[in-house]
Design a protein that fits this description.
CATH topology of the largest domain: 2-enoyl-CoA Hydratase, Chain A, domain 1
Largest sheet: 6 strands, mixed
CATH architecture of the largest domain: Alpha-Beta Complex
Number of helices: 12
Distance between the termini: 75 Å
Shape: globular
Mean pLDDT: 83
Low-confidence stretches: 1-22, 357-368, 385-391
Radius of gyration: 24 Å
Helix content: 25-40%
Number of domains: 2
Structural class: alpha+beta
């Protein structure tokens, strides 16, 4: 059995090497590591305390192999792969919360407005201790998402520790259809539109353009504040098309893998629908990946003024590759670069005007600080460094946002002054 597995694995790896053009480095022992892997799997199958299927062992080996590469390469079972694809589609059934793992705790990042979670009183910073009576200790993020989502109308019971509470609370929530909204809009003042992009899913650009068109059809558009704060990213093509909305030509981003000949450029195309009004872009440590592509392109082309904090610093590109049994892998295959050739991997984009809004890391009142790419274990180092819009005037919601958001208030003031500043320059 051991010899069969070893020979099969060796043949598989050799065939992959031939098909991808990868050659064995001189002096590297190709067969020794495969033999060691075969011996370990055979020992587990024969001596482990309980029966373990070969599928479990192989899946675990693939998962561990990818996790050791960098924080963003991962293996997904068939169910997990399906959940991942749902995350970039138009809607799903669930309760409407964004979650993350912080210090090993399943934490609510934010409830989506007007969803069951929002109406049930879940708030940012709440810790989910149990899902339907089962502990969330050591749970993976993908598994948590799978357990929270479910058929419309079904009930889920969460044990929640609110951020400021001393005792947990059980909350019963009925699942519903949750639309994935990528763009929201408000009128800040006559002529000035606030656009918030919450994520880059397959309809984000369409939603954003619709907000702009609805306002422009009845009013003269004078300026835009584009809010990318706490936007974790998403689809590369949507980042390119969002940036293209505000650029007439030139490079938006290019990606480069291990082979220098495989560079791929994504360029803006001139269109009569291009938006040319003055722009201010808001960014912070939660702006990552696709958000950084948009911010970097607009900054390099001097198209917008960036205000806020240094961004997350994720400039790696993941390819999603389905496997034969319905599972899949997400593999880091390239780095992306801004139009000027900057790699912001583990460094982030520095805004033109640094204007912190959140407390300093050491003074955060909830004991948590904003984590960036460089804080993730196993992150890829930076190679270059190592070497709905409403009509009319401001809405009540916009006025409330302006009253409590210093960055947004500053952005509005500056976007109104940009034409004068450019004339002086």
């Amino acid at each position: 059995m051991r010899l069969t597995v070893w020979i099969f694995t060796a043949i598989l790896l050799l065939s992959m090497s031939v098909s991808t053009g990868i050659t064995k480095p001189v002096g590297e022992d190709l067969y020794g590591p495969l033999k060691r892997f075969s011996q370990a799997m055979d020992m587990i199958e024969r001596q482990y305390v309980r029966d373990v299927s070969r599928d479990e062992l192989i899946n675990g080996a693939i998962r561990g192999m990818l996790q050791d590469l960098d924080p963003h390469s991962t293996f997904m079972t068939a169910d997990e792969f399906k959940e991942m694809r749902i995350g970039t589609s138009g809607e799903f059934s669930g309760i409407g919360i964004e979650i993350s793992l912080r210090n090993g705790r399943l934490t609510v990042i934010s409830p989506i407005e007007d969803t069951p979670a929002y109406k049930a009183g879940l708030k940012a910073g709440d810790t989910i201790l149990e899902i339907d009576g089962e502990t969330t200790q050591d749970i993976t993020l993908i598994e948590a998402v799978r357990r929270i989502r479910g058929p419309k109308g079904s009930e889920i019971i969460l044990t929640i520790l609110h951020k400021d509470a001393t005792a947990p609370e059980q909350i019963s929530i009925k699942r519903d259809t949750i639309p994935i909204i990528g763009a929201k809009g408000e009128v800040l003042e006559d002529g000035y539109l606030y656009l918030r992009l919450t994520r880059f899913h397959e309809h984000t650009t369409q939603e954003m353009r619709q907000l702009i068109n609805e306002y422009s059809a009845k009013h003269k558009l004078e300026g835009i504040v584009l809010d990318l704060r706490n936007n974790p990213g998403g689809l590369l093509d949507q980042a390119v098309s969002v940036a293209d909305t505000f650029l007439s030509d030139g490079n938006v981003v290019y990606i480069q893998g291990r082979n220098p000949k495989n560079r791929k450029d994504f360029n803006a195309r001139k269109s009569s629908k291009d938006i040319t009004v003055p722009m201010v872009v808001l960014i912070n440590a939660g702006s990552a990946s696709a958000s950084e592509i948009v911010a970097g392109a607009l900054q390099d082309h001097n198209r917008a003024l960036l205000i806020g904090e240094r961004t997350f610093g994720k400039a790696t590109v993941q390819s999603v590759i389905p496997l034969s049994d319905g599972s899949g892998i997400k593999l880091t295959t390239a780095l992306y670069y801004t139009p000027s050739g900057r790699s912001i991997q583990a460094e982030g984009i520095v805004p033109d005007l640094i204007y912190p809004f959140e407390p300093p890391r050491e003074k955060a009142d909830n004991g948590l600080h904003m984590i960036r790419e460089k804080d993730l274990q196993g992150h890829i180092e930076n190679a270059t460094h190592a070497e709905g819009a409403a009509a009319g005037g401001a809405t009540e919601e916009a006025l409330e946002m302006l009253s409590r958001d210093n960055q947004l208030r500053l952005a509005l003031q500056l976007v109104k002054k940009l034409p004068d500043l450019k004339a002086i320059k």
